[in-house]
Automatic annotation (TrEMBL):
<keyword id="KW-0720">Serine protease</keyword>
<dbReference type="GO" id="GO:0008236">
    <property type="term" value="F:serine-type peptidase activity"/>
</dbReference>
<dbReference type="InterPro" id="IPR003507">
    <property type="entry name" value="S66_fam"/>
</dbReference>
<feature type="domain" description="LD-carboxypeptidase N-terminal">
    <location>
        <begin position="20"/>
        <end position="136"/>
    </location>
</feature>
<protein>
    <recommendedName>
        <fullName>Muramoyltetrapeptide carboxypeptidase</fullName>
    </recommendedName>
</protein>
<dbReference type="Pfam" id="PF02016">
    <property type="entry name" value="Peptidase_S66"/>
</dbReference>
<dbReference type="InterPro" id="IPR040921">
    <property type="entry name" value="Peptidase_S66C"/>
</dbReference>
<keyword id="KW-0121">Carboxypeptidase</keyword>
<dbReference type="Pfam" id="PF17676">
    <property type="entry name" value="Peptidase_S66C"/>
</dbReference>
<dbReference type="InterPro" id="IPR027478">
    <property type="entry name" value="LdcA_N"/>
</dbReference>
<dbReference type="GO" id="GO:0006508">
    <property type="term" value="P:proteolysis"/>
</dbReference>
<keyword id="KW-0645">Protease</keyword>
<dbReference type="InterPro" id="IPR040449">
    <property type="entry name" value="Peptidase_S66_N"/>
</dbReference>
<feature type="domain" description="LD-carboxypeptidase C-terminal">
    <location>
        <begin position="245"/>
        <end position="382"/>
    </location>
</feature>
<dbReference type="GO" id="GO:0004180">
    <property type="term" value="F:carboxypeptidase activity"/>
</dbReference>
<dbReference type="InterPro" id="IPR029062">
    <property type="entry name" value="Class_I_gatase-like"/>
</dbReference>
<keyword id="KW-0378">Hydrolase</keyword>
Length: 406
């Protein structure tokens, strides 16, 4: 097994016209919702390939283990498929881990997107394969996804910040969209097949070029290029302040907890740990976190970011957030939320669990089962800053070499 601390690289960014394959590692899904999600992806300019086996069923899962595993392996092996998105979460991904062909997957790095139960695959891949992964919406959740969710997904898949508007012929200007044709020019533009440029050139075609770019057999190298940054909700709470850099990992709390004691137990050393969940009462969250702490999973963690804990009792009342955010540290006596508040209980649990680790802890990151599900690039180096309440993905220096015409 690969050590989770090895340096991974991003797979080649997607471009308009690329084919994205669909897999269904977990629960059965509503076909109407799936096709609405497919339409959202097609509107972004991608071609969507749905293997017939995706529509299989066994009990509550989208087919038996062999069928679901085969679809994933075949999508990674197919050179015409440039990325893979999951149909739905639910349950079932954990059953596939012992059957996946990790050697094949490692040799065919591709964009892979999912969340919730798909955390099991993201965690296993982070241990076994040398490329970045994407914690982001599944197709059934895209059916009702807001623009912010879809914009974030496109930014990460194409590594082109704020590129959704520009790539479909509009640019964001002073909060309003303005038609632009093939090229947006601010400060001079060298156009190569249509590009967006803001003081440099971003080419969206065979490669993405910002600053000085060198193409080597389909490999993209980026010089000076923009970073992607996502800020927490304005009502977010900083439980402990700090600014740290680390490898982003994590996902659904319950799914991660179920991997303890398996060959795919997560390794959070030197990481910025992201956690989210849905429908779990505070005492269950306490139990899972206590289990993970006793298993030493939090040793070496550099920072903790909490996403949405939907239907877990978090209220997010502004007056309570304002009162808490006037505090500098979790140990401050001005943390005076009502003790019967579910939000207080959730935050208190995290404060207690991570009290001895002395790492920054921030809540309110817009990712998970909430109304907004921003995409996150896992296994990548990120900067967590509680002062700006943001998570930043600096510009990557190199991409895995892939033959785009193979």
């Amino acid at each position: 097994m690969m050590n989770s601390l090895f340096r991974s690289a991003p797979p080649h960014p997607l471009v308009k016209g690329d084919t994205i394959g669909v897999c269904a590692p977990s629960s059965i899904f509503d076909k109407t919702l799936l096709m609405k999600g497919v339409k959202k992806m097609e509107d972004l300019g991608f071609n969507i390939y749905i293997p017939e086996a995706v529509y299989s069923r066994k009990r509550y899962m989208a087919g038996d283990d062999a069928v679901r595993t085969r679809v994933i392996n075949e999508l990674f092996a197919d050179p015409s498929v440039k990325g893979i998105v999951c149909a739905r979460g639910g349950f079932g991904a954990i059953r596939l881990l012992e059957y996946l062909d990790f050697d094949l997957i490692s040799s065919n790095p591709k964009v892979f997107v999912g969340f919730s139960d798909i955390t099991a695959l993201l965690c296993a891949f982070s241990l076994k394969v040398p490329f970045h992964l994407f914690h982001g919406p599944v197709l059934t959740s895209m059916a009702v996804a807001c623009d912010k969710t879809m914009n974030s997904l496109y930014e990460h898949l194409t590594w082109s910040p704020e590129s959704v508007c520009s790539d479909i012929g509009v640019s964001q200007q002073n909060g309003e969209c303005q038609e632009i044709g093939g090229c947006q020019e601010i400060g001079g533009c060298q156009e190569i097949g249509g590009c967006q440029e803001i003081g440099g050139c971003q080419e969206i075609g065979e490669c993405q070029e910002i600053g000085e770019s060198q193409m080597i057999g389909g490999c993209q190298k980026i010089g000076d290029c923009p970073e992607i940054s996502v800020s927490c909700d304005p009502l977010s709470v900083v439980l402990r302040h700090g600014k740290v850099t680390g490898r982003l990992t994590g996902g659904n709390l319950a799914t991660l907890c179920h991997l303890i004691g398996t060959p795919f137990q997560p390794d959070f050393r030197e990481s910025i740990l992201f956690l989210e969940d849905i429908g779990e009462q505070p005492y269950k969250i306490d139990r899972m976190l206590s289990h993970m702490k006793l298993a030493s999973l939090f040793d070496g963690v550099r920072g903790v970011i909490l996403g949405s804990f939907e239907k877990c009792g978090i209220s997010g009342k502004k007056k309570e957030a304002d009162r808490f955010n006037s505090c500098v540290n979790v140990s401050s006596s001005c943390y005076e939320r009502p003790e019967d508040s579910d939000e207080y209980l959730i935050h208190e649990i995290f404060m207690e669990i991570f009290d001895s680790h002395d790492v920054p802890v921030m809540t309110g990151f817009p990712s998970g089962h909430g109304d907004v599900n921003c995409t996150m690039r896992f296994s990548a180096e990120v900067i967590m800053d509680t002062t700006t309440r943001s998570l930043r993905w600096p510009a990557d220096t190199s991409y895995i070499k892939i033959n785009r015409h193979g």
